[in-house]
Specification:
115 residues; mainly beta; 4-stranded antiparallel beta sheet
Length: 115
């Protein structure tokens, strides 16, 4: 099994930047998909950004150009650099990892964008 622990959330003003981190531990595969989803109150969980072990990335259209997902394989970490944050980015951000046909989720970290 894989355990995921997020950090880096917080309260920021519109236009600010924030960087989320997620540490993976446990039985780690060299082949994976890793990244971030988010869930706002009363809304369904939605994709933010993913990156696979081949280096291919995928972004949701509403974060394209503002957010960047990166992976440090040596540390089993995934990051989400969020720039030009908007109030509509407010949500719980959840780390995600898929390997060996099994998904794993972190507990989530709250990001609030408000003036």
């Amino acid at each position: 099994q894989v355990q995921l622990v997020e950090s880096g959330g917080g309260l920021v003003q519109p236009g600010a930047s924030l960087r989320l981190s997620c540490a993976a531990s446990g039985n780690i595969s060299s082949e994976y998909i890793m990244g971030w989803y988010r869930q706002a109150p009363g809304k369904q969980r939605e994709l933010v950004a993913l990156k696979n072990s081949r280096g291919t990335t995928r972004y949701a259209e509403y974060v394209e150009g503002r957010f960047t997902v990166s992976v440090d394989n040596a540390k089993n970490m995934v990051y989400l650099q969020m720039n030009s944050l908007k109030p509509e980015d407010t949500a719980v951000y959840l780390c995600y990892r898929w390997q060996w046909d099994n998904p794993a989720w972190g507990q989530g970290t709250q990001v609030t964008v408000s003036s």
